Amino acid sequence: MTQRRLVNAKARREKKMESSAIILRCRNHLWLVAFTLFVVWYLLLYVLDWSSLSPITQNHVSIQSGKFNPVDITKTTNEINGMSPSFNRVKDRWNKHGTAEETTNGEKPIKPLGEIVSKNQETGKSSDKPRLSCSGRYIYVHEIPKKFNDDLIDQCQSLDNWTNMCQYIMNKGLGQQLPRDKIFGNTGFYATHQFSLEVIFHNRMKQYDCLTNDSSAASAIFVPYYAGLDVARYLWGSNVSERDSGSLEIYKWLKEQPEWEFMWGRDHFLVAGRITWDFRRGVDEDSAWGNKLMLLPEAKNMTILTIESSPWNSNDFAIPYPTYFHPSNDREVFQWQNRMRKLKRRYLFSFAGAPRPNIGDSIRSEIMSQCQKSRRKCKLLECRNAGNKCLKPGYLMKLFQSSVFCLQPPGDSFTRRSTFDSIVAGCIPVFFHPASAYVQYLWHLPKNYEKYSVLIPEEGVKGNKLSIEAQLEKIPKAKVAAMREEVVKLIPKVSYADPRLRLETLEDAFDLTVKGVLERVEKLRVQGRNSNFVGDEEYSWKQSFFGTLGNDEWDHYFKRRSKEKYWGK
């Protein structure tokens, strides 16, 4: 009996232990399930980009190479009645005075393509930006002959005498994607060519939210002519007729379009993705540089966007060089900005470049000499032909990320792409001439230049009359920190977002450019069709920056000899 009780007790203990083991295993499995569910929830909420999953829709908009083919757009009454669409477009634009709220006969305007795209989510990414009215923001994109854009892309092998541009045209003009490493982080960096802006801008325009296929409703007309890629084929070893052929043909084509008659081209704009001096040949001699795109009568009416404008002319406007950074969403921008804020920078200042012995007034040799003498406080990256590290994004970005200040002296011209690469790296730019940035990028950089940069007069550096190191060291640390924060805030404003996607709340360089163009066109519209720059164009830089011709603070920088120095005329 006693033995039987012991057996039963032992059986009960074993059963209890087995039950406990089962409960323990189940509890462990529950923790595993709970953890897995948490990971899945986190990935779905914070990592996966739902907006990139394009739903299948019945309505489809094809936007390729500037061709806009919206489906199910109702014809206007005038077209149904057999009247000339061209005549009516011009007539409607006069009646609307730049607005697109309704037509004079009470009809609603044709829906802007941007709204159709956004509704159908054909762009591949929805936008969380506050929805702005398209009134005063409509843009019509001319469907120009393919020889002026698409055919140039197809001939990418012959666009440059020394470089195969095909590798830079891929990914909508961004170039090859760079590896995600400790230099570039986990964000959108590409090996972007400094002269690929025309392609990038055109592809970004296809994502613009207020495109319209009704030119009479447009506030501005975009001409997707790749002027820089076109002229680059003929800059060396050609005659003037070859270099000028594209400019003459595109202007002839534009003047034949009904849209030109509305303001005689003053509401038209295009991007010429090189410096202004490549398009301002003043004499018809084969030995002279560039073409005359910006000197032709039609150009005087248009707004031409370049990566460097002429301080002495009023029809071209500078917009930032393309950098290596092309974020696809706000998160990538914020992540990169936070990383640039936290970096420890071991060098007080740095310079990446080469001397310009053929330019008599160049201060680059003095800058390089001072940098070498500063020992551990300055880092010099020399751009030599043999194994030029300046052509490799990794070396440049590593240099800028390790520097507090980045020197940006003039080179072959006033401006440098390096300025914008250094800003993306959170490095405070140091300029030696106001035309290197201040009077150039008025739509993108703060007018109060002391908030984000340092200006050291070039005449002080010439002959080593002052020490760059001493000038930078006397800036209080608190001010340096404030300046760096301003630079970090500028990163999205000087970057062109990935043209295949959209930023959600931030404005990039494209957004600010379009805003500037629309404001300029509206101002010209108010002034009248025959409006021109009032005063001597020689001082247009002063009017643009100071708002008055009375300020003579920088006059010595912009004497005619400076123009000859950088233009050769």
Topology of helices and strands:
Blueprint (H helix, E strand, L loop, with lengths): L1 H46 L14 E3 L2 E3 L7 H4 L4 H12 L16 H8 L18 E3 L8 H5 L11 H4 L27 H9 L14 E3 L4 H6 L7 H16 L4 H4 L4 E8 L21 H5 L1 E6 L7 E3 L11 H13 L4 E7 L10 H10 L4 E5 L10 H9 L1 E6 L9 H7 L3 E4 L22 E2 L2 H4 L6 H6 L3 H14 L18 H19 L12 H7 L13 H8 L2
Keywords:
single chain; 569 residues; alpha/beta; five-stranded parallel sheet; 21 helices; globular; disordered C terminus
Query: What summary fits the major beta sheet?
Result: 5 strands, parallel
DSSP summary, beta strand count: 12
Strand content: 5-15%
Q: On the 0-100 scale, what is the average pLDDT? A: 82
Q: Quickly count the helices.
A: 21
What overall geometry do the principal axes of the alpha carbons give? Answer: globular
Folded structure, characterized:
There is one protein chain. The protein is α/β, with parallel strands linked by helices and 569 residues long. The strands form 3 sheets. A 5-stranded parallel sheet has the order 3-4-5-6-7. The protein has helices at 2-47, 77-80, 85-96, 113-120, 150-154, 166-169, 197-205, 227-232, 240-255, 260-263, 297-301, 330-342, 364-373, 393-401, 418-424, 458-461, 468-473, 477-490, 509-527, 540-546, 560-567; strands at residues 62-64, 67-69, 139-141, 220-222, 268-275, 303-308, 316-318, 347-353, 378-382, 403-408, 428-431, 454-455. It is globular and about 120 Å long.
